[in-house]
Hints:
Layout: H1 5-9, H2 14-20, H3 25-34, H4 39-46, E1 52-58, H5 63-79, E2 82-88, H6 93-96, E3 110-114, E4 120-125, H7 129-145, H8 161-195
Parallel strand pairs: 1-2
Antiparallel strand pairs: 1-3, 3-4
Amino acid sequence: MAVTRERFASGLTFEQYKQQMTRNRERFEQNEREVQIKPPDLAAFQALPQPLDVLVLAEDWCGDVIANLPVLGRLAQESGKLNVRVFLRDQNLDLMDQYLKEGKYRSIPAFVFFDRYFNELGRFIERPDDISRLRERKRRELYGQHPEYGSPETPIDQLPEEARAGLMQWMASLREELKPSQDQAVIRDLRAIVERAK
Length: 198
């Protein structure tokens, strides 16, 4: 079922989304403040002939939402060319199921760009592919150095408490280490979508 203008308009604005957050809001807003947008990237968004509508699926417990939605929010704010509406994934599965990662995963955030006629121009789901590959490589290296974490395929909630705490701490520090390059990769991927609209 196609997204209609009426359905899109029923979503939360970026500011309304932040206001309703019950988790991770401080980290979200810190990420928003720290995003560095290079002038040529901002100019690509500002040069859009018409504003674009961007449907977002998100939840405040998701690390990729906390990392990547602030990038979109800053681009929207600074360019004045992105009309963002956020839908909570778990309350809008009919929307989520139209934008599955690899056609099967309810991965978030999902950013779906539309022109003024609600034709889809492109989508961004979860995180840039090159960042996923880098994170996976570093994760496998970590598991090789720390046999107490078991196999990389073992779900984190099945680890003993001490191992789980160590792994969570490592993941948080990796997120911080990769943040500047991830932000730039997100901007690059979103810019590629909007440049199709020109």
